């Protein structure tokens, strides 16, 4: 398994869904289920972790990929484009934004100076 705390390993895709607070839970469940059934089987996919804002207005998907090449292949695929369009059309989704990242540094309690 790739150590995502290693700056030389993999990439992270951060996706933020802005949602109606009354629909946050339902949107999160629907997105996670779709990712589990489809995206999780893509080459290079490592994980997706969902965070819910305490005010109910956002969902953050922290997705880990083995490489940018794997992620780019996923993004270019028509099925992936269709899935992302379906997410944007879910009841309660106001907007989605995504960005690609690499690890710069990890600080943990054991490494703090």
Sequence-ordered SSE layout with sheet pairings:
Blueprint: E1 11-19, H1 24-37, E2 45-52, E3 58-65, H2 68-76, H3 78-89, E4 93-101
Antiparallel strand pairs: 1-3, 1-4, 2-3
The shape, in one word, is globular
Structure classification = alpha+beta
Mean pLDDT: 91
Order of H and E elements: EHEEHHE
CATH level-two architecture: 2-Layer Sandwich
- Beta strand %: 25-35%
Question: Strands across the major sheet, in which order?
Answer: 2-3-1-4
Q: Output the CATH topology.
A: Alpha-Beta Plaits
Number of helices: 3
- Mind describing the biggest β-sheet? 4 strands, antiparallel
Helix coverage percent = 25-40%
Q: What would you report as the Rg, rounded to the nearest angstrom?
A: 15 Å
CATH class: Alpha Beta
- Overall structural domain count: 1
Note the gap between the termini.
28 Å
Q: What are the salient characteristics of this protein?
A:
113 residues; alpha+beta; 3 helices; globular
What's the gist of this structure?
The chain has 113 residues and is of the alpha+beta class.
Describe the structure.
The chain has 113 residues and is α+β, with helices and mostly antiparallel strands. It has a single domain (11-101), classed as Alpha-Beta Plaits (2-Layer Sandwich). The chain contains three helices and four strands; from the N terminus they run E-H-E-E-H-H-E. It has a four-stranded antiparallel β-sheet. The model has no long low-confidence stretch (mean pLDDT 91). Keywords: Monooxygenase, Oxidoreductase. Residues 11-100 form the ABM domain. This is Antibiotic biosynthesis monooxygenase. InterPro entries: ABM_dom, Dimeric_a/b-barrel. One of its GO terms (molecular function) is monooxygenase activity.
